[in-house]
Amino acid sequence: MGKPPNLYSYPSVNELAPQLRAFVLSAQNAGIDHHGSFRVAVSGGSLPKTLAQALLAPGDGSSADTPRFDTWEVFFADERAVPLDHPDSNYKLVQEELLDQIPANLGKPKVYPIDIKYLDDVDEMADQYEKLLVSKFAAKDSVKLPIFDLLLLGCGPDGHTCSLFPAHALLREKAAWVCAIEDSPKPPPKRITLSLPVVTAASRIGFVATGGGKKDILRQIFDTEEGRALPSGLVNEGAAEKVNWFTDNAAVDGVTFPRRGSL
Ligand SMILES: O=C1O[C@H](COP(=O)(O)O)[C@@H](O)[C@H](O)[C@H]1O
C-alpha cells in the first residue's frame, strides 16, 4: 500500500459533524465543477443520522459551505430487498433522517432507490440497479467502472461495509458493478450491494464510524493483518489515499494507527 488512508478522530459526533460537512461539500463542489452534478452513494445503518447532523446544520453562508441538493444524484451503496417503507430499508432511513428534512431553499436531490418490482428476485434487482448506473454513468463498454464523486460508508462490528461481508465470495467479484447477496449474515439476508471494484474506483470515500462499539473492529482493521483482509480493510488497501475515516475518540480508543488527527 502507498499512502495510507486518513483516520480522523474527534471528541464526539458534535465535533465530527462539521468536518464531515466540509468533506462532503468539498466533494460536492468538485463534482459540480467537473460535470455539473454531485453523484454520491450513501449507506444505511448509523451513517444517515450523522450525515443529516452534518449537512442540515447552519453553515457560514459561503457558497463553498452550502449544500446544493438540486445538483445531488443520490444512489445507494447497498440496499436490503424490502419495500421502501419497510423498517429495514436503507432508503427509508435516508429519507427520514435526511431527505425529508432538507429545507426547500437548498433544493431537491434526485434519488435512485431500488426497483421494488424485483423484491422476489434479488439477482434481477441487482441487474436493474446496475443498468440504472450504466444509464447514469454512460454505456458500460465505454466506462469500465462508474466513478462516484463520493461514497459514504459505514463499517459494521464484523468489518463489513456496504453489504460486503467478511470472507464472502462477493469480495472476489471483478466484473459486476452491483451484486446480489442472498445469505447476508446480518438480517435481512437478501440485499444488493456495490461491488468492491466500484467502491474502490470512487473519487473519494468517507467512512463514518462512531461509538465504543466500533473500537475492537477498528483496532483490527488498522492494526492487524487479518483486519486488513476484512471488507472495510480491503477498501483501505484498494483505495488508500482516497479513503477518509471520520471517527470519534471512543471508536478509535486503542488504535495505534499513526495518521490520526483533524481534517
Ligand atoms: O447492514 C448494514 O450495515 C452497515 C453498517 O451499519 P452501522 O449501523 O454499523 O453503521 C451499513 O453501512 C450498511 O449500509 C447496512 O446495510
Automatic annotation (TrEMBL):
The keyword Cell inner membrane does not apply. SUPFAM superfamilies: NagB/RpiA/CoA transferase-like. GO terms for molecular function: 6-phosphogluconolactonase activity. Residues 13-243 form the Glucosamine/galactosamine-6-phosphate isomerase domain. The keyword DNA-binding does not apply. Its EC number is 3.1.1.31. Pathway: Carbohydrate degradation; pentose phosphate pathway; D-ribulose 5-phosphate from D-glucose 6-phosphate (oxidative stage): step 2/3. Pfam families: Glucosamine_iso. Keywords: Hydrolase. GO terms for biological process: carbohydrate metabolic process; pentose-phosphate shunt. It catalyses: 6-phospho-D-glucono-1,5-lactone + H2O = 6-phospho-D-gluconate + H(+). InterPro entries: 6-phosphogluconolactonase_DevB, 6PGL, Glc/Gal-6P_isomerase, NagB/RpiA_transferase-like. Hydrolysis of 6-phosphogluconolactone to 6-phosphogluconate. PANTHER family: 6-PHOSPHOGLUCONOLACTONASE. Belongs to the glucosamine/galactosamine-6-phosphate isomerase family. 6-phosphogluconolactonase subfamily. This is 6-phosphogluconolactonase. The lineage of its organism: Eukaryota, Fungi, Dikarya, Ascomycota, Pezizomycotina.
